[in-house]
Amino acid sequence: MTDERIMVVEDEKIVALDIRDSLESFGYNVPCMASTGKDAVEMAKIHNPDLILMDIVLKGDMDGIEAAGIIHDDSDIPVIYLTAYSDEKTIARAKLTSPFGHILKPFETRELRTNIEIALYKRELEKEKVQDNQNWINSLMSNIGDAIISTDAQGRVEFVNPLAQALTGYKQEEALGKPIEEIFRVICEENGKKAPDPTRKVMNEGAFYGLQDKTVLVSRENIRTPIDVIGSPIRNSHNEITGTIIVFYDITDRKNVEKSFLNYSFNYNDNQAVNH
């Protein structure tokens, strides 16, 4: 028995059972089967399989392509379509969900097994590539000279570099999974009111957004630090926004220089007025 878990989505019970028997004979585990698109979405959340065999035409309001699209957005579980339909419109819709394979019915068990093994292998390669990239990105962000916090699309913290940990007062293990507003608390310097959330602006507008000069970070210990902030979107290969990166830095020294300059100018002008 292998560790791979494959979910079958097929509304013809006899066909579904036949596919399940074939998968089990290959050594795969079949944790669940679904007969509608709605059930497929729910079961994918519960069982989180390694692969889904999805019939395109299903009974009910949601077909297999729509179900696969929702699953792809929620958890990115790879899908192989099983269908008797190969018209261009159906294929074009199916491609939008980034499937790992497309098998036309009727099919041989050997063809099914080959497609499954290729899909699972591709998935492992993608995981390794993503992990390598993530390790490189984390290393880069850990050593960069600015404070950095990254979030997912829901604004939950995914990464906090050492400088951001120092300024916010939260260690990474404490911050992970929390809404960013709990970690990154910013107020307006002039009135002390809560400053606009840069992550929301970035997610809503899909563009860079900055809070400069008049923003104060309030740390866990209630230490107040004047900062400049820049937020930018994180996009996937489909140009969809999957999160945000917030870069901020302490501008205390700059503020002190500005204050000293203003005091000097004020005193100089006063002296000039007295002398005249």
TrEMBL record:
PAS domain sequence ranges: 133-206
Key words, A-Z: Phosphoprotein
Record has Ribosomal protein as a keyword: no
PAC domain boundaries: 211-263
InterPro entries for the chain: Bact_response_regulator, CheY-like_superfamily, PAS, PAS-assoc_C, PAS-like_dom_sf, Sig_transdc_resp-reg_receiver
Family matches, as PROSITE patterns: PAC, PAS, RESPONSE_REGULATORY
Keyword NAD included in the entry's annotation: no
Modified residues (4-aspartylphosphate): 55
CDD domains (alphabetical): PAS, REC_DC-like
Domain Response regulatory: 5-120
Example of a GO biological process term: phosphorelay signal transduction system
Xref: NCBIfam families: sensory_box
Name under which the protein is recorded: Response regulator
